[in-house]
Recover the amino acids of this structure.
């Protein structure tokens, strides 16, 4: 299955080399999205799941028609059966090449909480810890995060062989969870940021991600260049509060008849890329898949577009 990407122009007779070009690898009947820079590391397994070819049945609406779609849902959702999710997960883990690796996930809470995974933590009956990032140097461990619009980020220290899996929604992004996970790798493992590869998987894109003033204000308060990550009336959203939209009593309109608040569009990929580069990762080692989950419902789940939907999974581990 080919990915549609823009091709760079090269001089006649020269072969184009694009290390950022992602591919979808077919394995065990699934389509696994891979970052080439990570796929080159023979000591590591990784993959980003896609939507098709699972055991779950999701009711979808396409062109005004309802139908049941077979999907690879990897999250324990209200509409799906647990045994089907477990079957999907087993199929996905084997398709990534993880085999019998120990899988470690989290109860994700849109935080900046990071957990280190050590051999002593890997008990058979452990409950999922709460947080949004995992780091490890343990062999045989597969770190996983779930998404359905938020940005999944995988980090790999190519020198010391340490990895991280990060779930970055807007709340985690504004708290710099990706940079904090890298910082924990520096502190715990001695990771040098220049040795790290970062892969930002499929997430909701700027044109599809509409946010209100509360989000814009949080980014404005934390990042001097936040304006670069927004389209739309960013300045009015982060203004001093004198906009009549925010003082309904000045509009002379009865309650419930005020104009809707302004909105802008946020680029979470650009924000996290900038956060990782500011933390010391080389720009040439930060890769993005280029996929918007809300635009590509044929390949991914999108909570914003569907509300009732499944979950993707991003996985990384050390062999």
């Amino acid at each position: 299955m080919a990915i549609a990407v823009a091709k760079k122009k090269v001089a006649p007779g020269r072969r184009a080399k694009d290390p950022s070009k992602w591919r979808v690898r077919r394995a065990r009947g699934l389509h696994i999205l891979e970052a080439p820079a990570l796929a080159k590391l023979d000591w590591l397994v990784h993959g980003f799941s896609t939507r098709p070819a699972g055991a779950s049945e999701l009711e979808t609406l396409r062109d005004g028609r309802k139908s049941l779609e077979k999907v690879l849902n990897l999250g324990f959702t209200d509409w799906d059966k647990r045994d089907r999710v477990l079957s999907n997960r087993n199929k996905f883990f084997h398709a990534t090449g993880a085999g019998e690796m120990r899988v470690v996930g989290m109860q994700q809470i849109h935080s900046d909480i990071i957990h280190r995974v050590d051999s002593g933590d890997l008990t058979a009956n452990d409950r999922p810890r709460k947080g949004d990032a995992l780091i490890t140097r343990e062999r045989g461990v597969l770190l996983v995060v779930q998404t359905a619009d938020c940005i999944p980020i995988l980090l790999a220290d190519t020198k010391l062989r340490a990895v991280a899996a990060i779930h970055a929604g807007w709340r985690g992004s504004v708290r710099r969870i990706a940079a904090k996970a890298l910082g924990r790798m520096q502190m715990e493992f001695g990771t040098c940021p220049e040795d790290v590869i970062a892969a930002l998987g499929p997430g909701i894109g700027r044109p599809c991600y509409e946010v209100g003033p509360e989000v814009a204000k949080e980014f404005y308060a934390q990042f001097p260049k936040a304006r670069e990550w927004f389209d739309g009336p960013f300045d009015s959203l982060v203004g001093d509060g004198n906009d009549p939209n925010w003082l309904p009593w000045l509009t002379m309109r009865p309650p419930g008849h005020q104009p809707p608040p302004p909105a802008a569009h946020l680029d979470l990929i650009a924000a996290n890329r900038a956060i990782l580069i500011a933390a010391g990762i080389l720009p040439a080692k930060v890769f993005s898949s280029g996929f918007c989950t809300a635009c590509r419902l044929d390949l991914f789940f999108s909570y914003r577009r569907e509300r009732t939907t499944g979950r993707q999974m991003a996985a990384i581990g050390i062999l």
Observations:
- DSSP finds eight helices and 19 strands in the chain.
- Residues 1-17, 241-247 have pLDDT under 50 and may be disordered.
